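Colleagues,

For the teaching module next term, I've prepared a clean inverse folding example: a structure given as tokens, and then the sequence designed for it. I'd like students to try predicting residues themselves before seeing the answer, so please don't circulate the second half yet.
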């Protein structure tokens, strides 16, 4: 048997898992700043820093402009240096293909693409002005991007054979059009009043009942038609859906060409937006409400990933963890990462959590680049218990704990209700409650984290009193529980698991019973 099969996403029972070297792999990642990976000397101390944070994976850009500075002449020496740097530090890699689009513009295309507006036309806004984005209608750009990406994947397959340093690839970055709801170039203007392709209408009509709710509501509000022009079929959503389809088709061509060479898991990421006009964010990007369109347009893409800088972390997670899309967070605010990571991996079975750009100073976020001891502690703590987390992901027996208010919370897990109260205020990151709880079975619960207390109560309508048979603290070493003190007396005050005054993250195992 191949000890290092190609990493894949296993969608077997209980949700999706990333499988690396034949075993579930949860990514505790870090995405480096946009320019860091363009220079191997700059990266030398960065690898060290990420390994010191207990990351198991680095997310690093590979840009079209640096791989193919001259058309048809490709240079993968930088990629080879990134592979070596990661391997030397025991890290896996996710390559971020900065091809035709990055954050709604085309600043990473090679200069031979930038300067040839005839072959590689820009999209235009409603006034006819060119935008900074190559048009998704540029067939030449699609072919050139796909060819270079395919060559990259071929190279990675050969250079990484048997090692599987690279475990996934991001195709493009935060696609969409900025500054305009859609492309108003000549080809786009001809396509917009033409019939919506049946390759889109047919799957939407076939899945009408299981479409994302807000997409279906918008479609039905405009008549729910399955033929007609874009404005006729999609009404107010037409510009966004039109862009999503055409961007999706382009991304599909790039992704499929890469997978034909080396079928690693591939995803594409979204700049999040809620309640704002399309074009104030990259319009047509893979927002959750457009997943049904993107899925029809880009079937080779394995999942759609949110970049979460948005303050309502819970909303963004729930939004992307629906309709069969596994949660995979390639970018998140580094601030608060030490708490949010628990919610992502335990409540939403996330395959990846990766704060952005904390390895060196950032041009606009002054606190990036600072040391983040709380994140280091959270990653060390989670790294030691990863086998336990991956075992319970997708079983419905693990819940996340993340304090977003100061009221107590009540959840049901297994045979008990859990009343969670908080040690401090939600708006104070240093004490904010964060953690996870696992129903290990037979009345045994694992509670991990800090800043909260849990009292176990009988199920609604059941009555009786719940008590501890035993409560112990402990640690994990490579996924194995190492028991510490047996807690009783003052340490079980109020018959609760209390991780309230502790300065660091803790784990406890409680065995419970109920008497009437
Ligand atoms: C989202 C992008 O995807 C990243 O590459 C980076 O630009 C961050 N925003 C913020 O700096």
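(Answer key — instructors only)
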């Amino acid at each position: 048997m191949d000890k290092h099969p190609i990493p894949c996403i296993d969608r077997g029972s209980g949700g999706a898992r990333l499988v690396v070297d034949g075993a579930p792999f949860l990514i505790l990642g870090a995405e480096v700043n946009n320019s860091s990976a363009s220079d191997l000397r700059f990266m030398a101390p960065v690898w060290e820093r990420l390994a010191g944070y207990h990351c198991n994976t680095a997310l690093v850009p590979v840009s079209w402009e640096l791989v193919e500075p001259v058309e048809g002449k490709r240079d993968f020496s930088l990629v080879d240096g990134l592979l070596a740097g990661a391997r030397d530090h025991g890290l896996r890699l996710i390559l971020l293909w900065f091809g035709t689009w990055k954050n709604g513009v085309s600043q990473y295309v090679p200069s031979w693409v930038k300067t040839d507006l005839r072959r590689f036309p820009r999209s235009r806004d409603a006034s006819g002005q060119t935008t900074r984005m190559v048009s998704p209608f540029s067939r030449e750009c699609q072919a050139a991007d796909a060819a270079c990406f395919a060559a990259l994947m071929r190279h990675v397959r050969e250079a990484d054979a048997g090692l599987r340093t690279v475990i996934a690839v991001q195709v493009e970055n935060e696609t969409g059009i900025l500054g305009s709801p859609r492309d108003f170039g000549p080809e786009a203007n001809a396509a917009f009043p033409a019939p919506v392709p049946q390759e889109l209408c047919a799957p939407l009509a076939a899945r009408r009942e299981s479409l994302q709710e807000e997409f279906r509501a918008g479609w039905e509000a405009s008549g729910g038609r399955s033929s007609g022009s874009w404005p006729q079929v999609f009404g107010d959503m037409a510009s966004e859906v039109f862009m999503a389809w055409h961007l999706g088709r382009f991304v599909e061509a790039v992704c499929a060409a890469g997978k034909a060479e080396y079928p690693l898991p591939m995803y594409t990421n979204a700049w999040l937006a809620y309640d704002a006009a399309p074009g104030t964010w990259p319009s047509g990007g893979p927002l959750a409400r457009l997943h049904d369109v993107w899925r029809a347009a880009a079937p080779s893409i394995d999942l759609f990933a949110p970049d979460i800088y948005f303050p309502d972390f819970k909303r963004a997670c729930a939004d992307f963890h629906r309709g069969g899309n596994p949660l995979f967070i390639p970018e998140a605010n580094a601030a608060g990462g030490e708490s949010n990571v628990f919610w992502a991996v335990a409540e939403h079975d996330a395959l990846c959590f990766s704060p952005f750009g904390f390895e060196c100073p950032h041009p606009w976020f002054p606190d990036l680049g600072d040391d983040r001891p709380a994140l280091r502690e959270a990653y060390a703590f989670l790294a030691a218990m990863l086998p336990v987390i991956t075992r319970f992901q997708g079983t419905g027996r693990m819940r996340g704990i993340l304090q977003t208010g100061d009221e107590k919370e009540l959840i049901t897990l297994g045979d008990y209700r859990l009343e969670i109260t908080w040690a401090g205020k939600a708006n104070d990151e240093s004490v904010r409650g964060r953690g996870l709880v696992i129903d290990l079975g037979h009345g045994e619960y694992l509670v991990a984290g800090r800043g909260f207390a849990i009292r176990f109560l009988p199920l609604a309508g059941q009555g009786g009193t719940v008590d501890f048979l035993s409560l112990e603290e402990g640690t994990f070493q490579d996924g194995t529980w190492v028991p510490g003190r047996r807690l009783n007396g003052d340490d079980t005050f109020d018959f609760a698991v209390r991780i309230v005054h502790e300065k660091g993250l803790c784990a406890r195992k409680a065995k419970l019973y109920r008497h009437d």
